Amino acid sequence: xxxxxxxxxxxxxxIAYSLFDKVGFLLNSYMSLGILEKxxxxxxxxxxxxxxxxxxxxxxxxxxxFSALYWLAKDLFEAAGNEVAEPQARRLSAIRNHLxxxxxxxxxxxxxxxxxxxxxxxxxxxxxxxxxxxxxxxARSALVYLRIGVGLEERRRERERAGVSIEEIPTPPLxxxxxxx
Length: 181
Fold this sequence. Notes:
Strand order of the largest sheet: 1-2
Distance between the termini: 50 Å
Strand content: 5-15%
Shape: elongated
Number of domains: 1
């Protein structure tokens, strides 16, 4: 079943799953966490290490948007932190892994009698669609929580910046009109 709509569905799944890492990278930069680029992920940015408390940058803010992201991160599976709240987390991750690195074979019906293939994950089109819709809902939630969290953080930071006089804020140099592109 390799038609265009199937390939678009697979691409949408991969893109939706990649949103979580993008949120992780954004929060690493925005909250100045200092996590090395190769170690940033949606799940691992909340703590400085396994068994460590939640980072102070998140714990002291009282930001319920970031708190919601923390609990949403518990719904995604990573081999490094395999405690998950979401029953389908491992399956979502397995599908993503096969789409990115191996092969996902979609069938019209559940096929339990196919020979084992280390490179292929075989699932029905109906199951894939259910999982993709579920993943899209999680990605949408992450974006909504991120927007709320950043909005609350900006309001908190604005109060901290309120005491800064305008004279202390450097103005950017003006670019003459003839130098503008």
